[in-house]
Write a structure and sequence with these properties.
Helix content: 40-55%
Order of helices and strands: EEHHEEEEEHHHHHH
Radius of gyration: 22 Å
Strand content: 15-25%
Number of strands: 7
C-alpha cells in the first residue's frame, strides 16, 4: 500500500549536525546545541562535508564558537552522541489514498531550518481527525473525508512548502523577502505580520496581500528618507 504514495524529492538541504550538552551541576537544565546549515551542493559544501566527516565534534565546536554571544562549551559535558545528516532531501508525498492517510513528516519532510516539523505534524493530525472522525463506519464517507483532508493539507501548506524548498537551495533573499523582512525590523505592524507568517499562523497569500506590501514599501521608504536627512 505504501508504494502507492509517490515520493517526490525536490530541493535539498546540506550539512545538518546536532548534539546535546549539559553545563554545571547535575541539576542544571540541558543545553541543546543544534547546527543547521542549508547550502547548495558546491565545491565548498563538499569540502565542508569532508571536514565534518573527519572530526564532527571539532568542526561543530569551531562553528559554534564563531556565533555571536554563543555560550561557552568549554565546561560542557556531551551527553548524547552526534547525530548528523550531510544531505537532507525535501520530500513530499500524496497525503491520502483510499483507506489510508499520512500526517507529519510521512506526508511532508522538508528543510528543518524553519522548525515547523512538530507543529505541522500536530496540525495535519488535527485536520485528519476533523475530516474523518465521524466517518469510520462508512467506506464511502471515509474516502470522502480523506479527500477533504488532502485538499485541506494542500491548501494550507503548499505555498509554505514551495517557499521553504526554494530557500533551501542556499540562494540569497529575493526582492520580496528583503522588502518584508526589513520592514518587519522597522515597524510593529509589519513585525506582527511577519511573526504570524513565520509561525505559520497565516498563509503566503495573506502575508503578501497588496496592502501589506504597500505598507512595507512605505515603511522602508520612510526609513530611507529619514536616513538621507541625517
Amino acid at each position: 500500500m505504501l508504494r502507492q504514495f509517490a515520493q517526490q524529492p525536490t530541493r535539498r538541504s546540506f550539512l545538518s549536525l546536532s548534539t546535546y550538552k549539559r553545563e554545571g551541576p547535575p541539576i542544571a537544565p540541558y543545553l541543546s546545541v543544534k547546527q543547521l546549515i542549508s547550502l547548495p551542493e558546491t565545491r565548498l559544501t563538499r569540502a565542508l562535508s569532508a571536514e565534518w566527516k573527519a572530526d564532527p565534534e571539532a568542526a561543530m565546536t569551531r562553528l559554534f564558537e564563531g556565533l555571536p554571544c554563543a555560550p561557552s562549551l568549554a565546561q560542557a559535558q556531551r551527553v548524547t552522541p552526534f547525530m548528523g545528516m550531510m544531505e537532507y532531501p525535501n520530500l513530499h508525498r500524496s497525503v491520502s489514498k483510499p483507506g489510508l492517510a499520512l500526517v507529519g513528516d510521512a506526508a511532508l519532510s522538508i528543510d528543518p531550518l524553519w522548525g515547523i516539523g512538530c507543529g505541522w505534524a500536530l496540525q495535519s493530525a488535527e485536520w485528519l481527525a476533523g475530516s474523518v472522525g465521524r466517518a469510520w463506519m462508512s467506506p464511502t464517507d471515509l474516502d470522502r473525508g480523506l479527500s477533504a483532508y488532502a485538499k485541506r493539507h494542500r491548501s494550507e501548506l503548499a505555498d509554505h512548502r514551495f517557499l521553504i524548498e526554494n530557500f533551501s537551495t542556499g540562494r540569497p533573499f529575493n526582492v520580496i523577502e528583503r522588502l518584508t523582512f526589513s520592514a518587519a525590523a522597522r515597524d510593529p505592524v509589519c513585525a506582527d505580520a511577519f511573526a504570524a507568517f513565520g509561525s505559520r499562523f497565516i498563509g503566503v497569500g495573506r502575508f503578501l496581500r497588496p496592502d501589506a506590501l504597500a505598507r512595507a514599501l512605505w515603511v522602508n521608504a520612510r526609513h530611507a528618507l529619514s536616513a538621507a536627512k541625517i
